[in-house]
Structures are given as structure tokens and as C-alpha cells.
Amino acid sequence: MTYEEAINKIHSYLVFGSKLGLHRMKSLLGVLGNPQDSLKIVHIAGTNGKGSVSRYIYSMLQECGYKAGIYISPYIDRFTERIEFDGRQISPEDLAKYTKTVTDAADAMVARGEESPTEFEIITAIGFLYFKEMEADVAVLEVGLGGDGDSTNVCSKPEVTVITSISYDHMEQLGNTLEEIAACKAGILKDGVPAVVCVDDPGAEAVIRGVAEKHHAPYIRVRDFEARDVKKSVEGYSFEAELDLSALDPEYGNMKTGRVQLSMQGMHQVDNALCALGAVTAMKLRGWNRISPEKMLSGITRAVQPARLEVMNRNPYVIVDGSHNPAGAKCLADTVLENFRGRRILLINGILRDKSYDEMVDEYLRFEPDVMTAEVPNPRTMDPKDLAEVFRSRELYSSGRRSVGVLESQGQMKEFVSGALDRYDLIVFAGSLYLMGDVRRMLKDLSEKN
Predict the structure, then answer these.
(1) Are strands 195-197 and 160-163 parallel, antiparallel or unpaired?
(2) What residues pair up with 162 in beta bridges, in sequence order?
(3) Cβ–Cβ under 8 Å, residues 407 and 299
(4) Of 92, 103, 325, 449, which cross-links 169 as Cys (Cβ 3.0–4.6 Å)?
(5) Strands 68-71 vs 138-142: parallel, antiparallel or unpaired
(6) Please, which residues have CB within 8 angstroms of residue 360's CB and are 6 or more apart in sequence?
(7) Local confidence band at 173 (pLDDT 50, 70, 90 cut-offs)
(8) Which residues contact 111 (CB under 8 A, 6 or more apart)?
(9) Which of 93, 83, 174 is nearest to 132 (CA)?
(10) pLDDT tens across 233-269, in order?
């Protein structure tokens, strides 16, 4: 099987949709010898922030000398981004090799009358098998959707679990209230395993705490941590932190980190970093002896996450951000206002039609940009003309104080952006992550030509 054949084979499972539930995954992994049972796991769920928290944890564990793997979704530029080990993406040859093994097992399941695994389940199984074969010391797993029924939730005894945030997204699968969504995500909590939780809503947090108590899981509340002397910059935020891990041991209620320097921007990244610091410190207290405060600090600085407030150019500033739900749009708006208030700003926005686009538009309005809407390369894209009308319905645009336009193609976007670079202090590409891969390639091409 070639790399291209592997990608086509994986995508052929898209016809089975996105389904929660673990019976298919357990059956598939059983055929493969249950590779997940030989792995040490860090398991991360949450509405927003789980990708960045996963990256912080992965980077810190690598810096501490562990052979670490990371499993994330979706990818931005290349499919192999989803499975990484020891600082390198899975090679095309290895992806082809493990895809054949996993899909042969899936075909055998179907041949004996079982329900076919979904695409995400196939990819997750590839990740488990690959990390086992690479003899990973630890694998950092980002939940795909929800928690309890997600295909990553087959690890019976992770080292630590993390819930980064709870807000509204994927309500058709997870529930219509924050409490229902929280209950779903709390499904990753396990008996006796520390739970690091960063949730603001009191009702949602109460649900998660209740699940933790039921599992006798030490409850590490990130809102009890303290970030002091926060310095904000478009080049990255820094702070000093005090962690409270007294849930693991009463003497660890006042742990100071030293100065934490992030390469990512935004106050939400301070929260994400606190989550990651809490999780890795919990691992140290549970016997991961190579973890040291100095290595944690250098590792967290090295962590970067593509298309999360990613600075792609500095004169003018060009930022790419996959803010694909209202909470993400709020984080973007907060960060823009902290660093670019009152400047000339252009927003290029593409959204999926099943997202809460009205709320997202209201968040973007806070920094008063000119707007161009674009199509997302996904069947679920919102028509950019319809999205433009949503912007035009707001007074900022109906009054003519700011402009709204539509980009009809990727070629037109490239031409427009090339001409806009000398007219704005900041250009923001925001919305669906499915759009950001094309945007990043376009921007790199423009940079090379200039």
C-alpha cells in the first residue's frame, strides 16, 4: 500500500459518518492485540484548548527526556500531522504500513457481520498501534469529540486526565446544556486517576467534580492556580504561576513555577499552559522522575500550535486562527483588542454552516474589522455570500463604517491579500480549521515571492 492509497483507504470510511460509542473500537483493537493496553496515556478533552494543552504537555515531556507521542485532530497542512512521535510526524511509509494492518482488521470485522469502524476510529487505531511499535514512553491523546463515547476513551488507566474547558459546540451529539456537555466530557475520568479541570461554569464544573468523586479521582482545579505578572505580547505571553496540587498531597498546595514564557498568544493560552503545567506536575508527583521544573519551563516555551493565533507575517502582522466556535472567536477578539486596539484591521472569515455563526460574528465585530468572507474547502461550508449578509445585518457594516466583501475563489483571495498588505496594520484569517491549511500555504507562497 502506498501513502496515497492509505489516505484514500482511510477516507473511504467517511461513508460511515461520525458515531460515538466504543463497541466498534474495542472490537477493532481486540483484533489488533489491544495495543492501547501497553501504553502510558495522558488523555485530554474539552471544547476549546485541548489541542494547545496537548502540545504543551507533549513538548514538556519530550524536553524531560521521554519518548512521547501525540495524537491530534484535525490536521492543517498534511495528514501525517495527526500522529507524531519523538518530534517527527509519522512517515508516509509507516502510515501506509499501519493503515494496511488496521484496515485489514476492519475488513475482517465487516466480513464476519460486525459494524464497520468509522474513519476517526481507524485513525485512532493506527495511532495506538504506531505508538506501541515505537515503544513510546507516553502518548498524549486529544479527544476527537466529547469524551465518554470517543474512540480515544479505551484506555482504562491513564496517567492523568485533563478537561480544558466547557462551552457550546457539537450540541447535536453532546447535549444542549453545559451540564450535559460536561457529563459527556467527564466520561474520560477514571478510577483513582488525577483529573486536571479548567472549567468556569459552576454547573458544568459541579457535574465534573461529581464524576471525579464517584471515581475517587483526585480533583485538581486549575481555577485555584494563580498566574501573576502576566506580560502580553503578540510574540507570546509570559507569567509566573503558583500551582495547587494539594488534591494529590497536602504539602503541594503552594508550588511556584518560575517565569513561564509561551510562544503562543492570548490569555486563553495562559489557562491552557496552567492546565498543562498541572498535568505534568501531577505526573511528576506520581513517579515520573525525569520531570524537572527547569525542563518543563524550556519545553513549554518550545511548544507551538499551527493556526492557533499563529503569526505568519510581521509587517504588517498577519495572524491565522482556527476559531471555529463562539468561545474560540471570543479568545481571538480578546487577543486582538489587547494588542491591536484602534488599528486598521482586515478579517478574512470562512465558517461551516452548522456552527453558531451569529455569535461568532458578534465576537469578531468587537475589533471592528473590514471583512471579506471566503468558502471553506469542506462540504459543510457556509456560502460566503450568506456569511457576508450576516455581517451586513450588523450596524457597523449597514452604516458603511466598515466594509464587507466576498472572495469567490482561492485565486481571488491570494490576489486580494497581496494588494491589502500595505493597507492594514493587521490581517486576520479566522474560522474553520479546514480553511487554514490553504491559507497557510498561500501566505508562505506570497512570502517567498516577496
Answers:
(1) parallel
(2) 44, 196
(3) no
(4) 325
(5) parallel
(6) 323, 325, 326, 329, 351, 431
(7) low
(8) none
(9) 83
(10) 888 899 999 999 999 989 888 899 999 999 998 899 9
